[in-house]
């Protein structure tokens, strides 16, 4: 059991990669607090994991404060934070709206700042913890039509490194996972909208398939586990079937 007695907050934990992380954390003995804007879905997932559900829009400081308070009321402590909430708003940069920019940056960049700061203060008082941020291969590999998404995911890597060096002396490790395309509703939306060309993506991927959410979850468990990843901080672990290593023509 890698997370025995650990209280773990997962933002965007109601479905997709976040739900899979919750399932793995539960199997590893963790207590899962599911934070999501979709409260009914969060409740359903939390019930399956014998955890708690907290309505939270991670881009809103008051909501993050309130969810932190209700999580601490329910479980007394927070040992692990996974900043996973995300949206995939795509479109030509020349027409990208202010609203879509602000939504993307608000959730995936400001949200990581707010949750890390509010829960980080608690972890500092508590004497330690682990934060795992979900970035993307798009932090370093540009996809067209995803200006805000790529910008936010690159910022997540930068924030991971800054927080890791600032908080190492407080016993807080901060790492990130950069998944390749993973089978979730977020990706299905991209396929339906025609912004993911499945055949070409798979041809370019050395392992010729998408990731399954559980494959991302297992990397997150490793980084969250204080014994397995005891000397790992400030790193971004790519889980992408070799996508980022690929330099050959297709
Ligand atoms: P998903 O759409 O299946 O799930 C995202 C969850 O985040 C949903 O439950 C949604 O309600 C929640 N959410 C959205 N806005 C929120 C907000 N403001 N506050 C709180 N919760 C909010 O997506 P997913 O594919 O599971 O993606 C999870 C994370 O993984 C995202 O950060 C995404 O960018 C990242 N990622 C996904 C892929 C992929 O291919 N699926 C690849 C790389 C990175």
Task: Give a structural overview.
Strands 3-2-1-4-5-6-7 form a 7-stranded parallel beta sheet, with helices on both faces. It has helices spanning 16-27, 39-48, 61-75, 98-126, 147-167, 185-192, 198-204, 213-224; strands spanning 7-11, 31-36, 52-55, 80-83, 129-134, 172-179, 236-239. α1 packs across α8, α3 packs parallel to α4 and α4 runs parallel beside α5. β5 (129-134), α5 and β6 (172-179) form a beta-alpha-beta unit. The chain is globular and about 50 Å long. It has one domain (7-239): Rossmann fold (3-Layer(aba) Sandwich), CATH 3.40.50.720. The chain contains 8 helices and 7 strands; from the N terminus they run βαβαβαβαβαβαααβ. By secondary structure, it is of the alpha/beta class. The model has no long low-confidence stretch (mean pLDDT 97). Bound molecules: nicotinamide-adenine-dinucleotide (NAD). Nicotinamide-adenine-dinucleotide is lined by residues 11-12, 14-18, 36-38, 56-59, 84-87, 107-108, 134, 136, 179, 181-182, 184-187.
């Amino acid at each position: 059991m890698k997370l025995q007695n650990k209280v773990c907050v997962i933002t965007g934990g109601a479905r997709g990669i976040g739900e899979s992380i919750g399932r793995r954390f539960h199997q590893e003995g963790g207590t899962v607090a599911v934070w999501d804007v979709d409260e009914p879905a969060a409740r359903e997932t939390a019930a399956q994991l014998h955890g708690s559900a907290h309505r939270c829009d991670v881009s809103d400081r008051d909501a993050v404060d309130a969810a932190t308070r209700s999580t601490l009321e329910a479980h007394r402590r927070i040992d692990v934070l996974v900043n996973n909430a995300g949206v995939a708003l795509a479109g030509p940069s020349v027409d990208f709206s202010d609203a879509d920019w602000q939504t993307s940056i608000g959730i995936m960049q400001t949200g990581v700042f707010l949750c890390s700061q509010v829960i980080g203060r608690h972890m500092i008082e508590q004497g330690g913890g682990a934060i795992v941020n979900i970035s993307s291969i798009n932090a370093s590999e540009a996809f067209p039509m995803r200006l805000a998404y790529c910008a936010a995911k690159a910022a997540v890597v930068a924030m991971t490194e800054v927080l890791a060096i600032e908080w190492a002396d407080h016993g807080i490790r901060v790492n990130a996972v950069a998944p390749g395309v993973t089978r979730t509703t977020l990706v299905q939306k991209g396929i339906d909208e025609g912004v993911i060309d499945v055949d070409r993506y798979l041809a370019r991927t050395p392992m010729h398939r998408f990731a399954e959410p559980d494959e991302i979850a297992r990397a997150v468990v490793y980084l969250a586990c204080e014994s397995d990843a005891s000397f790992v901080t400030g790193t971004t672990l790519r889980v992408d079937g070799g996508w980022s290593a690929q330099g050959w023509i297709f």
